[in-house]
């Protein structure tokens, strides 16, 4: 998390850098700050809050002439949310000023013995990094040797942009595992966490991506790149690609929130992913056919992965080892004949990238499903799948996860066809059902939105919720509970419906509501009946249930559900998408009813680039 930017230009940069930082706000929004030069000294200004909400340009007049600046929007990892902990941070000797994304894991060791000398003012690991840079640069004969020394001392993962007091014409970028992109755009050189930051500087950019353990020193317009090898930075050449820069699709239009705008785009993203996957489909299927299948993701992407696990199990009769990225490496030793499917909207999720890097090193093949082209995960993968869902601005993933679910469905279907589990007739039926999914989703969006809204407004005062389901509806319930709590701040626990009776049911009373994700009676009779058994157990204890299912309400006894949302019955795989959509709408309307910060819920960030 955290968005960082550094700009060096021939003209003043305050106005574009402010707007750029606003574009990076999705990466963290508890506080922000800017640094530039004023008469050969650092000028730093920071504030608590989200930049789009509390920024006032009148407070930043002193920066107006600056043609080199760095900026940061924070998602705190070390040290509370306060002005003093906000970035940029200046070293003890005022020799450098840095903005940092990531975590310096050995900051306490580095601090030991130096506390007094460094006169630490914040609780951040970042201030320690600034001081280590200062020590390096003062100890060594030139900047690059100083950076080498500092880089060898810092452990953890980080992207850093830095300015030096001794030279107000130099901007430095360092990367170890956190993203940092370099752009040349006319008179401007920009270093930033995300290409979105470049939008304010023009429509065309020459871009290069710093890889792990690389550095860039921008001296005016002259750029030098380095790679850290054997304890020092060695100069390297990097290729630039010419890229069109646009913020297309990030306008709110007629909608009141990005979340609802993006949910509404789901029918389209389903078409887009089917087209995107084509190019790689054959290669991936052939490799999956011969390899052990592993799927990893974090947060929502993990629940997507679990839905995919059901697809692979049911469509291609293959067990896919599926774990949350942060735990996968504790459970799994990757080998040459493994195939890892890594799922991450941003392609920069730290925990998922750790799995990708480890698997790759072991010789495994990587398929990476991401909605950001050229993200780190896309660049590391053998088979990058770009979701092409359009920019997702809301911090909560909605359309991008629907697209990922569909991507896994299409992969599992193709593999099933390849290995003979899915015969030609069934393949054709499933393919045509997939084509009907956008219309079925339209039906949910248009036909059931008002009902879901009414349910949300009527029940948003309920503080405790269970979200339960069996089979594929278990991860659907987990994901829907996650979405619900993320944005409504209400307590929601997702759980397999069959597991519920083994203890958790003790919490049921008439104040603890349950959202039940019910399979199709027609397509999945056994699972449907088993789910209903579990719902009877809840009813018997006085619980209130809101049902989401494919069976007409008339099939249930009167009053069984407090409320019920019926969605089309497509097939036992794709029904998960329709139910996910209902879960998203329920979370959205509840959060609106409670007046929550929909697109930027508290304490969250869109791209989780720390461990
Ligand atoms: N560790 C730094 C801090 O807490 C940066 C956090 C981040 O990149 O998320 O300020």
TrEMBL record:
It comes from the Bacteria. InterPro entries: GATase_2_dom (IPR017932), GFAT (IPR005855), GlmS/AgaS_SIS (IPR035466), GlmS/FrlB_SIS (IPR035490), Ntn_hydrolases_N (IPR029055), SIS_dom (IPR001347), SIS_dom_sf (IPR046348). The keyword DNA damage does not apply. One of its GO terms (molecular function) is glutamine-fructose-6-phosphate transaminase (isomerizing) activity. Signal peptide: none annotated. It catalyses: D-fructose 6-phosphate + L-glutamine = D-glucosamine 6-phosphate + L-glutamate. Keywords: Aminotransferase, Glutamine amidotransferase, Repeat, Transferase. Residues 2-221 form the Glutamine amidotransferase type-2 domain. GO terms for biological process: fructose 6-phosphate metabolic process; protein N-linked glycosylation; UDP-N-acetylglucosamine metabolic process. This is Glutamine--fructose-6-phosphate aminotransferase [isomerizing].
């Amino acid at each position: 998390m955290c968005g960082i930017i550094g700009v060096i230009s021939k003209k003043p940069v305050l106005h574009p850098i402010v707007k750029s930082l606003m574009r990076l706000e999705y990466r963290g929004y508890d506080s922000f700050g800017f640094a530039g030069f004023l008469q050969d000294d650092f000028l730093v200004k920071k504030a608590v809050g989200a930049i789009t909400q509390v920024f006032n340009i009148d407070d930043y007049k002193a920066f107006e002439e600056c043609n080199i600046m760095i900026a940061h929007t924070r998602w705190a990892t070390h040290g509370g949310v306060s002005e003093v902990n906000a970035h940029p941070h200046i070293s003890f000797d005022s020799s450098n000023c840095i903005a940092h994304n990531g975590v310096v894991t050995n900051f306490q060791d580095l601090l030991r013995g130096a506390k007094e000398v460094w006169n630490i003012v914040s609780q951040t690991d970042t201030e320690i990094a600034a001081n280590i840079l200062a020590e390096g640069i003062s100890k060594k004969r030139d900047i690059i040797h100083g950076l080498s020394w500092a880089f060898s001392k810092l452990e953890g993962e980080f992207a850093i942009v830095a300015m030096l007091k001794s030279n107000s014409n130099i901007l430095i970028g360092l990367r170890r595992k956190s993203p940092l992109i370099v752009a040349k755009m006319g008179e401007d050189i920009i270093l930033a966490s995300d290409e979105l930051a470049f939008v304010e500087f023009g429509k065309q950019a020459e871009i290069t991506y710093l890889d792990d353990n690389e550095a860039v020193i921008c001296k005016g317009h002259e750029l030098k790149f380095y790679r850290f090898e054997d304890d020092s930075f060695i100069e390297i050449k990097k290729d630039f690609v010419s890229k069109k820069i646009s913020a297309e699709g990030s306008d709110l239009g007629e909608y009141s929130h990005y979340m609802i705008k993006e949910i509404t785009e789901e029918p389209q993203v389903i078409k887009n992913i089917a087209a995107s996957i084509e190019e790689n489909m054959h290669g991936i299927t052939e490799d999956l056919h011969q390899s052990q299948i592993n799927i990893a993701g974090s947060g929502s992407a993990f629940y997507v992965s679990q839905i995919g696990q059901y697809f692979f199990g049911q469509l291609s009769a293959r067990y896919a080892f599926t774990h949350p990225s942060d735990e996968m490496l504790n459970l799994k030793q990757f080998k040459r004949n493994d195939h890892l499917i890594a799922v991450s909207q941003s392609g920069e999720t730290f925990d998922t990238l750790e799995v990708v890097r480890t698997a790759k090193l072991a010789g495994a093949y990587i398929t990476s499903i991401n909605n950001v082209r050229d993200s780190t995960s896309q660049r590391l993968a053998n088979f990058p799948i770009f979701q092409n869902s359009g920019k997702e601005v809301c911090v909560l993933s909605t359309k991008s996860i629907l697209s990922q679910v569909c991507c896994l469905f299409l992969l599992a279907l193709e593999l099933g066809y390849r290995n003979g589990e899915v015969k030609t007739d069934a393949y054709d039926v499933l393919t045509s059902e997939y084509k009907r999914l956008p219309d079925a989703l339209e039906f949910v969006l248009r036909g059931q939105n008002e009902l879901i809204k009414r349910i949300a407004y009527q029940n948003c005062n309920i503080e405790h919720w269970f979200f339960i389901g069996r089979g594929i509806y278990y991860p659907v319930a987990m994901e829907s509970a996650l979405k619900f709590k993320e944005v409504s701040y209400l307590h929601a626990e997702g759980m397999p419906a069959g597991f519920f009776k083994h203890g958790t049911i003790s919490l049921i009373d008439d104040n603890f509501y349950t959202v039940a994700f019910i399979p199709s009676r027609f397509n999945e009779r056994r699972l449907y009946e088993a789910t209903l058994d579990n719902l009877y157990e809840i009813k018997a204890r006085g619980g209130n249930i809101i049902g989401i299912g494919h069976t007409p309400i008339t099939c249930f006894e009167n009053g069984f559900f407090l409320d019920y949302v019926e969605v089309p019955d497509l097939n036992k795989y794709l029904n998960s998408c329709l139910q996910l959509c209902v879960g998203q709408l329920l979370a959205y309307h509840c959060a609106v009813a409670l007046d929550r910060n929909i697109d930027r819920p508290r304490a969250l960030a869109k791209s989780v680039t720390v461990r």
